[in-house]
């Protein structure tokens, strides 16, 4: 179906036009998945709510700004993709889907998250990239089973100390925000595997050698004067990444990793 026809069908709120977009949904798909991404939908396809055993629902890249309360019937849903839509706030009905483990909300217009999101105790992956968050949503700190958090390309400047409560968190993606300093709370999250602070405004990186679980740190596109010092075997992506991760001569006090630069560490009286 051509894009023009699909766009017209999506705009007209008639059952016949909706069938052109989502098909004649009468039976549960064998794979328990419905994918109506990129269908120019302006309203939720209501026949989907009849599939109470549905596990995966992809609504990405549409024109949705709301969801019906009937969505609550999908209590087996584990993956919900709402990215690339027009949501200005998260519909509360999403917070009633207590089996959700992966939630895609990127590329919308969200500025905050409701406290009811904390009801999603099984949530393991949360994608919030490219929204309008200027403050880190506190409710995220209640998602104790979270393993992956992507909040890149927002306007975040700080992370709350309570974030360290997420002891199952293994990767955090903070690229494209407004951080001017490396978030201190991350230095106490020894269980992290991946830290991405690419494309921020961080000038100086602390030593990350105490992060015992760290496997990858991405710090490229920052106006930094040093590279983060890391333990052996940790991969770095950024300026001076290929330089052996040893301390800057004369910087034995802080181990800040100011190596290979024509600058003097603030803790040292000896230049390079």
From TrEMBL:
Q: Does the keyword Repeat apply?
A: yes
- Answer whether the UniProt record assigns the keyword Repeat to this protein: yes
Give the transmembrane ranges.
none
From the Swiss-Prot or TrEMBL record, give the protein name. Answer: Leucine rich repeat containing 10
Instruction: Give any Gene Ontology cellular component.
Output: cytoplasm
Any idea which UniProt keywords this protein has? Answer: Leucine-rich repeat, Repeat
Gene3D superfamilies for this protein: Ribonuclease Inhibitor
The root-end lineage is: Eukaryota, Metazoa, Chordata, Craniata, Vertebrata
Q: Identify the InterPro entries for this entry.
A: Leu-rich_rpt, Leu-rich_rpt_typical-subtyp, LRR_dom_sf, LRR_domain-containing
């Amino acid at each position: 179906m051509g894009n023009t026809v699909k766009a017209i069908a999506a705009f007209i709120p008639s059952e016949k036009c909706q069938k052109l977009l989502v098909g004649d949904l009468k039976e549960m798909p064998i794979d328990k998945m419905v994918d109506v991404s990129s269908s120019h939908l302006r309203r939720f396809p209501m026949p989907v709510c009849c599939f109470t055993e549905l596990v995966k629902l992809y609504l990405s890249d549409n024109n949705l700004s709301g969801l019906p309360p009937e969505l609550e019937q999908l209590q087996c849903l584990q993956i919900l993709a709402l990215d690339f839509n027009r949501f200005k706030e998260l519909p509360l009905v999403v917070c009633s889907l207590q089996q959700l483990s992966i939630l895609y909300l990127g590329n919308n217009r969200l500025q905050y998250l409701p406290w009811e999101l904390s009801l999603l105790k099984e949530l393991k992956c949360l994608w919030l990239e490219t929204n309008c968050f200027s403050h880190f949503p506190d409710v995220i700190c209640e998602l104790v089973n979270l393993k992956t958090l992507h909040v890149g390309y927002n306007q975040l400047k700080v992370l709350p100390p309570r974030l360290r409560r997420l002891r199952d968190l293994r990767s955090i993606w903070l690229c494209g925000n407004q951080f001017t300093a490396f978030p201190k709370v991350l230095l106490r999250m020894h269980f992290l595997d991946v830290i991405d602070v690419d494309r921020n405004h961080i000038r100086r990186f602390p030593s990350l050698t105490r992060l015992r679980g760290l496997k990858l740190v991405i710090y490229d596109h920052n106006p930094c004067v040093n590279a983060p010092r890391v333990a052996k075997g940790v991969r770095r992506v950024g300026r001076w990444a290929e330089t052996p991760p040893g301390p800057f001569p004369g910087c034995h006090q802080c181990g800040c990793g100011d190596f290979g630069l024509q600058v003097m560490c603030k803790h040292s009286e000896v230049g390079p």
